Amino acid sequence: MTREAPQQDVDETRLDIDKPKDWAAGVTGVLVSAQHGLAQMGLGRSVRTLRLVNQRDGFDCPGCAWPEPHGHRKVAEFCENGAKAVAEEATLRRVGPEFFAAHPVEELAQRSDYWLGQQGRLTRPMVLRPEATHYTPISWDEAFALVADALRGLSTPDEAAFYTSGRTSNEAAFCYQLLARSFGTNNLPDCSNMCHESSGAALKEVIGVGKGSVSLADFDHADLIVVVGQNPGTNHPRMLSALERAKRNGARIVAVNPLPEAGLMRFRNPQNLRGVLGRGTPLADEFCQIRLGGDMALFQALGNLLLAAEDENPGSAVDAEFVETHTHGFEAYAEHVGNLDWSEVDSATGLPREQIARVARMFAESERTIVCWAMGLTQHPHAVATIREVCNVLLLRGMIGKPGAGVCPVRGHSNVQGDRTMGIWEKAPEPFLAALDAEFGISTPRHHGYDTVNTLRAMRDGRVRVFFALGGNFVSATPDTELTERALRSCELTVHVSTKLNRSHVVPGRTALILPTLGRTERDLQAAGEQFVTVEDSMSVVHASRGRLEPASEHLRSEVAIVCGLARALLGDDHPVPWAEFERDYDAIRERIARVVPGCDDYNRKVRQPDGFVLPHPPRDARTFPTATGRANLTVNALHVPRVPEGRLLLQSLRSHDQYNTTIYGLDDRYRGVRDGRRVVFVHPDDLAALGIGDGSRVDLVSEWPEDPTGTVERRVKDFRVVGYPTARGCAATYFPEANPLIPLDSTAATSNTPTSKSIVVRLEPAHA
Ligand SMILES: Nc1nc2c(c(=O)[nH]1)N[C@H]1C(S)=C(S)[C@@H](COP(=O)(O)OP(=O)(O)OC[C@H]3O[C@@H](n4cnc5c(=O)[nH]c(N)nc54)[C@H](O)[C@@H]3O)O[C@H]1N2
Ligand SMILES: Nc1nc2c(c(=O)[nH]1)N[C@H]1C(S)=C(S)[C@@H](COP(=O)(O)OP(=O)(O)OC[C@H]3O[C@@H](n4cnc5c(=O)[nH]c(N)nc54)[C@H](O)[C@@H]3O)O[C@H]1N2
Ligand SMILES: [Mo]
Predict the structure, then answer these.
(1) Nearest CA to ligand 2 atom 34
(2) Which residue, 326, 553, 582, 762, is the most exposed by fewest CB within 10 angstroms?
(3) Is residue 515's pLDDT more than 80?
(4) From the CA of 254, how far away is ligand 1's center (Å)?
(5) Residue nearest to atom 3 of ligand 1 (CA)
(6) Which of 51-60, 356-365, 668-677 is least confident?
(7) Cβ–ligand 2 contact at 229 (below 6 Å)
(8) Distance (Å) from CA 672 to ligand 1 centroid
(9) What letter would DSSP give residue 48?
(10) Which residue owns the Cα nearest ligand 1 atom 18?
(11) Residue range 588-608: average pLDDT?
(12) Coiled-coil segments, which residues (predicted)?
């Protein structure tokens, strides 16, 4: 049955709700990963494929960016959700020319993201010509010529945008940004703009490097680990093993989240007996059930309490020597949080003051603290300021640049951090651009390009006319779906380099291309022989990844080959960048990376070391802070308290256990008790009572955005089932991407311009059948 894709689309009437779980993983996790493998790949291929995940001679798991352990690796160095990610890519199902001949684009546009993704791997380059109803095959050369012609026809290179999703290898990313800049634009929007951009912005300003400062080994030394706005049980399951080990070593864990996520409460590790037979390891010692967007107030309160304790008993709560030697801005910070209005803290957090006091004491008593966070902090209007406040508390305690301590933004896509290192950035710094110019003898543009939100604005206004995407699913990942779809459809040409069918292919520009590519699991054969690529994980470890499976089709090309092929069609064979050589042998790309990208010298040798190498990080390595002040900056941030009008709820959009962003693996959210459906909205039973809405009833979600300049746009998603759920009061949750039509394009975080996917004011209206 493995080759057969589902023909029926989702039937939400089968939706079934059970009680949420208070533990994650366990043997069910192993069984579920086996089921996905068998359904998509069959038995032999499942065993062969999964054996290679995250092994030194294998490929990097295309799931999340959590690092692999150095040295010894288990036979199964992956998790349930990594196994699903691999099964999705290594599936035996195919989407070829016959599929496109049978399904007009208009029909495909009516299908769910789930149905589209389940059809299988793309096998041939396909084109949708103006006015055509169906995609038809096209040769690679014709496809490159078509894109090159469209690009050359633009009145300025800035009318093109080159999007990247974070699965792209370092080699492909380096070539891709070089192509965009050789052509003449810095329009390099990427998924990071919707993800950890807020973390990068805050960290760059505070410590001088926009990346996390801990390694996996630090989790073994920490005595306090704070997990804020992150759901590791679903999105970074291998992190649970690190938390379990830390717990055994005596560390305490604080979880801060509006939802009692199963993976924060208890872990039943399927790889040991206690996890299989026993109750597993309890994780959070303290669960702070915070209101959405309340973290900034919480961390200001923690700063306030630490300073008060220090005043009372000097040496008890602040690392005065660190503050004195390494930080800037202490007085202003101390004065600001000293004047904290506690009633604002109460309303922002909803947390009991005794609990905040207990957590402050845990910080004060800890010698080695790590704070981890993800989208629960980065996707709010005040995201950057919130992360600055997290840093303030860690800096007071001297928790940077020593073992077992530091900042840990847990990245999403497996190579999103590497892509940025390689120059996928609309605002790449001057030294990087100057290095490109010097290395290749080109002149790259210096004015900043468009990020994701600005690309959409430019499309909407007719200022971007060609959209090229190296991976991802732009239409479903971005906010304001109706506007986004209109924006994409208004382009002259949209091009998607993809492994699998998704919604972005069926919301085409006047002409649209699908260019099918090799996945990370597949063998990459070029003229100089078999190639490997490199990636960087969430903790700055760079290492090799080598696909082993036969490609899904003989027509597939690697991402590197596609970028270099287009570059040659566009820029000609006498261009100073040796595109043909890059495509032939990826060592030639790595030689240039070594000379251009900071920290990558001797790249070809170092990535061939068994565990790769770690990029330099001055604050982590030597407590040097390459900031404007030359020190780590304590910052003053005006407190933002989310306000929600009477009768409204603050809604977050998040991931179920059965999806990878816009790729929907299945229809169950096991830990939250949801089966066979996705159109649910989780609301506290007392809020339901207050709103007069019955548990299990069906509602439309309508978002309200006071800053809407026209006030005339109604953003509504229809027919969601209400689920009474133990979330924080006043806060609701539903799944991404179903919720994306509710998020106004202009509702973004200050500084990072990240869409506010976790801060949407909504009202619930009875659904009209
Ligand atoms: N299996 C799987 N793995 C993935 C992904 C996937 O889709 N599936 N996606 C990958 C990607 S790209 C990313 S970026 C990461 C995402 O990883 P996460 O950030 O864990 O993803 P979300 O599902 O968005 O969950 C956000 C969490 O933050 C909490 N939260 C929301 N708002 C707030 C808040 O205001 N304060 C606090 N304290 N908590 C809040 C939510 O309740 C939820 O637990 O995962 C990566 N890994
Ligand atoms: N409402 C709401 N919106 C969100 C979020 C949220 O929490 N809430 N989260 C945001 C976040 S954190 C992120 S990172 C973005 C994600 O945004 P994207 O990265 O754009 O989306 P994905 O769903 O990860 O992309 C999936 C597609 O990538 C393609 N693909 C998979 N593997 C490969 C590969 O190896 N090569 C190539 N070329 N293509 C491949 C497949 O065709 C697949 O359909 O969404 C953001 N949007
Ligand atoms: Mo992400």
Answers:
(1) 519
(2) 553
(3) yes
(4) 17
(5) 235
(6) 51-60
(7) no
(8) 14
(9) H
(10) 230
(11) 98
(12) none
CA distances from 603 to 540, 543, 592, 607 (A): 14, 10, 9, 6
Please tell me the distance from the alpha carbon of residue 581 to that of residue 508, in angstroms, as a whole number: 33
DSSP state of 451: -
Task: From 299, 654, 669, 738, give the residue whose CB has the most ligand 1 atoms within 8 Å, as the site to mutate.
Answer: 654
Local confidence band at 72 (pLDDT 50, 70, 90 cut-offs):
low
16-25, 78-87, 136-145, 474-483: least confident range: 78-87
pLDDT for position 79 = 80
Report the alpha-carbon distance of residue 375 to residue 354 in Å, rounded. Answer: 27
Distance between Cα 668 and ligand 1 center (Å): 17
Question: Considering the domain 649-766 in this protein, what is its CATH number?
Answer: 2.40.40.20
- Written as six digits, the tokens of 477 are 């990942």
Domain boundaries, the chain: 12-89, 122-181+427-517+557-566+576-602, 197-409, 649-766
324 φ, ψ to 5°? Answer: -65, -50
Task: Write the residue with the smallest CA distance to atom 25 of ligand 2.
Answer: 472
What is the tens place of the pLDDT at every residue in 432-469?
999 999 999 999 999 999 999 999 999 999 999 999 99
Which amino acid, 636? V
- With a pLDDT cut of 70, the percent of the chain lying above it is 98
Q: How far is the CA of 461 from the centre of ligand 2 (A)?
A: 25
Residue to probe by mutation, ligand 2, list 94, 113, 167, most atoms within 8 Å of CB:
167
Ligand 2, atom 46: closest residue by C-alpha: 477
CATH topology of domain 197-409: Dimethylsulfoxide Reductase; domain 2 (3.40.228)
Q: Which ligand 2 atom is at minimum distance from the Cα of 163?
A: 20
Question: What count of other Cβ atoms lies within 10 Å of the Cβ of residue 688?
Answer: 20
Report the CATH number of the 122-181+427-517+557-566+576-602 domain.
3.40.50.740
C-beta atoms surrounding 18 within 10 Å: 10
* Cβ 378 under 6 angstroms from ligand 2: no
